[in-house]
Amino acid sequence: MHVFVQIPCLNEAGTLPLVMERMPKRIPGVDELDVMIIDDGCTDDTVAVARRLGIRHIVRHNGTMGLARAFRDGVDYALKHGADIVVNTDGDNQYPSERIGDLVRPIIEGRADIVVGDRQTATIKEFSPFKRLMQRFGSWVVNRAAGTHIPDAASGFRAYSKRSLLQLNILTEFSYCMETIIQAGYKRIAITSVPIVTNPKTRRSRLFHNIFEHMGKSAGAIIRSFLMFRAHSVFTWSAAVPGIAAAVIFIRYLLFYFAGQGHGHTQSLLLGVMLFIWMVVSLLLLIVSEVMRAQRRLQEDELERIKEIEYSPASRGLWQHVTTVRDAAHDAAHDAADVVAERTGETGETAWGTK
C-alpha cells in the first residue's frame, strides 16, 4: 500500500516546517509513504524549504493556477508514481498531520474510498457565529445535492483511494471540495468522515478575501456541479409543478365553462396555456438532459479506462524515466539561472516564468 500526502503551497515557507513536524513516518498497513508539495507559483523559499525538509516530490506551476488545478496536478503526479491512496492537506498547518493515519484507515480497511476530516466547525474559536452557520448550511446543501452525510463538506483534509480518483473528474477552478462530494454521491462512491481538531490559525485564507466571496464562489461551484450531474431532477420538478398547476386551471375553467360562465375566466385559461407551454419546454429539456447524461456516463467510463491504462505499472515506469530526465534538465537550467543572476545581480527564476 503506497500513500502519497500532497500539500498545495502558495508561499508557505514559514508554515511548511510546522506541517512536516508531525507528519507520520510510518502508518500501520502502509508499505510506502511519500510527501509531495505543489508549488502553485510560490515567490518565496517554499521549494527550498521543502527540499531541506527532505521532500523529494515537487510539482511546479509557473504561476498561481488555483487550488483545484493544484489538486488535480498533484493527483496526476501521485498516481503516476504508484499511489494507492492520496491524502490532501494544507500548507498553512490548519490540519493535524498526525491524524493522517486515522484519515486513511477506513480506506485501508475497505470501508470507504473517500474520507473527509470533520473539523467540527462549531468548536473552532476563529469562526464567527455567522461563519459557523454558513458552514453548516453549505454542508447541508451539498449533502442534499449529493445524497451524502458529510458534516464538513468544505474541509480540505481528505484521503482518496486510487479507485475513487479514477472515477472523479475535477472541472471547477475554485475548489474541488464541494464538487468531489457531489460526484461521489452521484457515482455511488463510498464516502465517510472522521472527526479532527484543527491547529491554531496561522494566516488569513488566500482562496477568498471575505466570507461573502467564499459563499458566492462555493454556491457557484455547487450549482454547476448539481446541474451537471442532477439536471434531470431540476427539469422533472420544472415540468411537474407547472403541469399540475395547468391541469388545475384547465379543470376549473371547464367547470365554469359548462356552467355557462366561461367568458369571465379567459385570463385563467391564458395562464393555464402559459403553464402548459412551460411544462412542455421542461419535458423537452428533460429529454435532452437524459440523453446528455447517458453520453457523459459513457464518456466517463471510457475516460476511466484510459486512466487505468495511463496509471498502470508499465506506463508508470516509462513516465518516471521521462520525469527523471526532465527534472534533471530543469534543475540544471535552474542552477545555471542562479549563477547568471549572481553575476548580473538579478533575482528570480528567469527560465521558468517567475521574475
Q: What are the salient characteristics of this protein?
A:
single chain, 355 residues, alpha/beta, 7-stranded mixed beta sheet, 10 helices, 7 strands, 11% strand, elongated, disordered C terminus
Describe the structure.
With 355 residues, this protein is of the alpha/beta class. It has helices at 16-21, 46-52, 67-80, 100-108, 129-146, 162-167, 176-186, 211-258, 266-310, 313-344; strands at 2-9, 32-40, 57-61, 85-88, 114-118, 158-161, 191-195. The chain has ten helices and seven strands. The protein has a seven-stranded mixed sheet with strand order 3-2-1-4-6-5-7, with helices on both faces. The radius of gyration is 26 Å and the shape is elongated.
Note the overall shape.
elongated
Helix-residue proportion: 55-70%
Order of helices and strands: EHEHEHEHEHEHHEHHH
Summarize the main sheet. Answer: 7 strands, mixed
What is the percentage of strand-forming residues? 5-15%
Low-confidence stretches: 337-355
Alpha-carbon Rg, integer: 26 Å
Give the strand tally. Answer: 7
User: In what order do the strands lie side by side in the largest sheet?
Assistant: 3-2-1-4-6-5-7
